[in-house]
Write a structure and sequence with these properties.
By secondary structure, the protein is of the alpha+beta class. 16% of the residues lie in helices and 46% in strands. It has a 17-stranded mixed sheet that branches. The protein has a two-stranded antiparallel ribbon with strand order 17-18. Strand 3 and strand 4 form a beta hairpin.
């Protein structure tokens, strides 16, 4: 029995060794740099360059490895490059490779810097426009790429910046470690991993219903979750890439609203209250419009529900809404006052104001 297992193991090892040797020989027939650069330019419509050495890789995937890689930004973009990476590995599917077909099955980006931008007209710089396919190779020339698919992409120790000139907002993510899965351009894009935002580590999970929609600036359904110390949130809805419009159901909670606003870059300052929070409702964000409907809010011991609308398209901003107070306890917001003989804390009896005539507070401006 041991001899049979040993023979089987030897056969398997020989098969893998033979396949690896065949793959190595086949890859060596390519002018790797020229072939990869040409194909990426055709696929993206952007200038692409591998300024460092190119070699054949066996880990973390069988394929090509290139160093010092750049993909150009749009003309008049803020950043000179859309993407820069210390190293890129294009993993290749082994079976098609042995059939003299080259299929990209995996992309590994090491220390990439990705500069996402939206210009003043609302046009995102990541919308790529493929050029015409290359003419067929002449007889007797080296084999070329015949098809491309992507089973996974890994980003290690990356940095992502986002700047929107239309809304005058910008954000940055550091220490980006993500894994993306994509079957083809018309399938869902699944991204999960961890990022650092303003010194807080956050786990994220994103599913975009149609990858082609993201790349062409169209609308697509999305599901996004974030799990960080200041907030845990889930959004399920639709994203319009071109306009930046977003609509969907959201739930969020966290230990401190003050801590969350500080993390977001708009600190409330020191003071009592505004700690634990829970929020849920239907969110709509569009050009010059923000709406939050069927909203349930709990901050400290105050519970409420309502609807809110902010529009800035006209000459003067419009703020309207409806707020229904379910329970009201203001004690978390009272500062202790000093009295003779020690500290005296003022208290107010918590009240339930969810009664006719008191429950709805209209807001209008």
């Amino acid at each position: 029995m041991r001899r049979v297992i040993l023979v089987l193991g030897l056969i398997v090892a020989l098969v893998f060794a033979g396949g690896g040797a065949a793959a190595w020989w086949f890859l060596s027939q390519f002018d790797a740099r020229a072939e990869i650069v040409k194909r990426v330019k055709l696929a993206t419509g952007r200038d692409f360059a591998i300024r460092g050495p190119v070699s054949i890789s066996v880990w973390p995937a069988i394929g090509f490895k290139g160093q010092d890689v750049i993909l150009a930004n749009v003309v008049n973009g803020t950043a000179p490059q859309l993407l820069e990476a210390k190293e890129i590995v294009l993993g290749l599917a082994l079976k098609p490779l042995l059939q003299r077909r080259l299929e990209v099955s995996r992309i590994v980006l090491v220390e990439p810097v990705l500069a996402l931008e939206v210009d003043a007209e609302g046009r995102p710089n990541w919308v790529l426009k493929p050029t015409m396919p290359a003419p067929p190779a002449a007889p007797g020339t080296r084999p070329r790429v015949e098809s491309v698919s992507l089973d996974g992409m890994t980003i290690t120790d990356g940095r992502i910046s986002y700047a929107n000139l239309r809304t005058k907002s910008s954000y940055g993510l550091d220490d980006v470690d993500l894994k993306a899965d994509l079957k083809d351009l018309d399938s869902a894009l699944d991204v999960d991993g961890e990022v650092t935002f303003r010194e807080q580590r956050a786990a994220i999970d994103l599913t975009a219903g149609k990858f082609r929609a993201l790349m062409t600036g169209q609308a697509t359904p999305i599901t996004f979750t974030i799990d960080a110390a200041p907030i845990k949130a889930t959004l399920t809805g639709d994203l319009d890439v071109r306009t930046g419009g977003l609509a969907g159901d959201i739930t969020a909670s966290g230990p401190s609203l003050r801590g969350l606003t500080a993390w977001a870059g708009t600190p409330m300052g020191a003071g009592p209250g505004f700690e634990a929070f829970e929020i849920g409702g239907h969110l709509t964000v569009g050009p010059r419009r923000f709406a939050f409907d069927n909203t349930a809010i709990k901050i400290d011991e105050v519970q409420s529900r309502g609807d809110f609308l902010l529009e800035t398209a006209g000459r003067t901003p419009l703020l309207s809404g409806r707020l229904e107070i379910i329970s009201l306890d203001l004690n978390p917001y009272l500062r202790p006052r000093t009295a003779e003989g020690g500290v005296e804390v003022a208290t107010i009896q918590a009240v339930d104001v969810a009664a006719p005539g008191y429950s709805e507070l209209p807001i209008a401006l």
